[in-house]
Amino acid sequence: MSSETIEIRNLTMEDYLGLKKAMIAAYDGMGVIFWREESIARLIRIFPQGQICVMVNDKVAGCALSLIVEYAKFGDNHTYQEITGNYTFDTHSPKGDVLYGIELFVDPDFRGRRLARRLYDTRKTICEKLGLRAIVAGGRIPNYEQYAVQLTPRQYIEKVKARAIYDPTLTFQLSNDFHVKKILKNYLPSDLQSKGFATLLQWDNIYYEEEKNPIRQLKSTVRIGLVQWQMRQYNLEGFLQQVEYFVDAVSDYESDFILFPELFNAPLMGEFDNLNPAKAIRGLTKYTEGIFKKCRELAVSYNVNIIAGSMPVLEDKSLYNVTYLCRRDGTSDSYYKVHPTPSEVYDWGMKGGQEIKVFDTDCGRIGILICYDVEFPEMPRLLALQGMDILFVPFMTDTQNGYNRVRCCAQARAIENECYVAISGNVGNLPKVNNMDLQFSQSAIFTPSDFSFP
Q: Which ranges of the chain have pLDDT less than 70?
């Protein structure tokens, strides 16, 4: 070995036959596997810097193939076929932020020379020089077939991490500063040794600096409009006119957000006053989709992000209390109230949602909780850990005692999580609507004790 020469360089088409031979040897036991010549030619043509080989005495001993991808388009749940564009490599984008490793192998005849480590180190150098955020790859777990009966993939990976089990691929990747982000199912179904599973691996470029686009930078000062909605009898047309009136008003003040209260469409329940409360609230659901679409249109036309209070939604015969975020760029999201109140459960048969999450906006990351949700400190804390800047709480209370609970808890959440909290409620009365006859509220925005309003 002392007379050997080892060279790392970019792959060329003259290397193809050597690459093919080395790859077949590397995947011996899985059948005759190799990249076709036209595939290698395309990779070299679209991204020559990312295709590297290691030569030992002028023979191809190993190879690493890569693409640059816009990772947000794929996310963490993807397959090998998807990330490679069904093996066309159309997913490669010079504007991407991640170097994605689609292949790395070493001919068994040349192992013991740390050639794979050299290939990984070269990949890291490429990632750093190109200013990419990270290297990501789907990693095989070839020894899993020996343990699949007694261990789940997660248990197997944990044992490999603890060095209780050796896996020729995963053990090596972990030793090269890659960390496992998650387990991918059916990543490469033909990989019988891994039982179709793969590890989603990532190496982070600590020198990466995200370019700041001045057009897309988040605003440092945010203006919020809170609607203290007066409950009174409306038909649908009158209701939508009133919604647009408030959107127009806050837009004139160049507000970034407008927050409507919980169940602000309750006046439309007057149509179902002859029904019991459970049937009446279900009747109200027929208006939800139309109101949501109108709010989405208003968000774009008035250039303001709308948090459309909350409205009842019927899904698979289950009733939920749902709020909608209508962004001014035309996109939207929803949040299902996790904690319905005891009266909502008893009188309406309301069910709770199963997910809490933050939402990205052009003014930072926001959270939305509905009324009773804010009285549970764990939920805002989870949102704060996800980077929430502002918490919006549409609420509905019929007494001052109920309002004080919401208000005091919202103030506590602002202090605990060092974020702004905005609450918006209903006032007035609806004498013809059961469970909605009285409303008490005072909309407000709370700041943490440590810093004031701009």
A: 1-2, 211-220, 432, 434-437, 450-454
**pTM strictly above 0.70:** no
Q: What superfamily does domain 224-446 belong to in CATH? A: Carbon-nitrogen hydrolase (3.60.110.10)
CA 243 – CA 263 distance, rounded (Å) = 13
- Burial pattern 344-371, b for ≥16 Cβ within 10 A else e, equals beebbebbebeebebbebebbbbbbbbb
Single-letter residue type at 354: Q
Give pLDDT, residue 73.
87
Q: What is the structure's pLDDT at 145?
A: 92
Q: Which two tokens stand for residue 127?
A: 């990632």
E-assigned strands of 113-239? 134-139, 179-184, 198-204, 224-226, 229-231
Q: Please write the tens of the pLDDT for every residue from 334-361.
A: 999 999 999 899 989 999 999 998 999 9
In sequence order, what are the beta bridge partners of 224?
257
Length of the chain as a residue count: 454
How is residue 219 annotated by DSSP? P
Q: Identify whether the C-beta of residue 336 lies closer than 8 Å to the C-beta of residue 352.
A: yes
Q: Is 180 helix (H, G, I), strand (E, B) or coil?
A: strand
pLDDT score recorded for residue 453: 61
Tell me the C-alpha to C-alpha distance, in Å, between residue 420 and each of 93, 220, 412: 39, 13, 11
Q: Determine the pLDDT at residue 32.
A: 73
CATH 3.60.110.10 residue ranges for the chain: 224-446
Q: Are 444 and 225 in contact (CB under 8 A)?
A: no
DSSP string, 261-301: PTTTTGGGGGGGTTS-HHHHHHHHGGGHHHHHHHHHHHHHH
Tens of pLDDT along 280-312?
899 999 999 999 999 999 999 999 999 998 999
Q: Are strands 305-307 and 257-259 parallel, antiparallel or unpaired?
A: parallel
How many helices (H) and strands (E) the chain has is answered by: 12, 21
Specify the CATH class of 6-204 in words: alpha beta
Q: Do residues 34 and 51 lie in contact, with contact meaning Cβ atoms separated by under 8 Å?
A: no
Residues forming the active site: 262, 337, 371
Greatest alpha-carbon pair distance for the chain in Å reads 95
Residue type, 256: D
Q: What are phi and psi of 339, to 5 degrees?
A: -115, 90
